[in-house]
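User: Let's play a game. I give you a shape written as tokens, and you guess the letters that built it. Ready? Here's round one.
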């Protein structure tokens, strides 16, 4: 008895165990999606962790999935920053990217000088007092932040459009 699986399009494969199998494009996509998910590359996952001056950080967070991933991960990082634009006349505050960050310790020494490629920025800073300088479209802002052991210091930056 010859058992065949047919699909609208695909390739025919014969293995040593018996009948030929016609694999359709859908079957190939399902297999690839399973492999992709098994390696941890699922939609909504955080981008790769980066390092600057020995400090690990992650930046990004566009879209609902990306935003949710950052919000879920924020409690495991001592510093959580968000960046938005304040439209004239109020309304919703759209997130922004391409923010230049300079983070200085209490002595004024630069501990990080990195771009934030998305509206969220998480960093594993040591406990202490820091000044965060954020620049977007040539406009700079500065805020003080106190990073404490076992918590997350959250700061938001917004620029008028």
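Assistant: Ready! My guess for every position:
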């Amino acid at each position: 008895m010859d058992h065949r699986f047919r699909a609208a399009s695909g390739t025919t494969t014969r293995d040593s165990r018996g009948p030929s199998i016609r694999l359709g494009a859908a079957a190939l996509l399902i297999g690839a999606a399973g492999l992709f998910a098994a390696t941890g590359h699922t939609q909504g996952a955080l981008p790769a962790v980066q390092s600057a001056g020995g400090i690990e950080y992650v930046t990004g967070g566009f879209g609902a999935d990306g935003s949710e991933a950052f919000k879920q991960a924020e409690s495991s990082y001592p510093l959580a920053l968000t960046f938005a634009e304040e439209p004239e006349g109020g309304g919703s505050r759209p997130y922004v990217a391409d923010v230049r960050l300079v983070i200085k310790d209490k002595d004024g020494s630069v501990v990080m000088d990195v771009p934030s490629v998305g509206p969220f920025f998480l960093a594993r800073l040591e406990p202490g007092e820091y000044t965060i300088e954020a620049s977007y479209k040539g406009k700079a802002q500065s805020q003080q932040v106190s990073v404490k052991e076992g918590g997350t210091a959250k700061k938001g930056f917004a620029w008028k459009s």
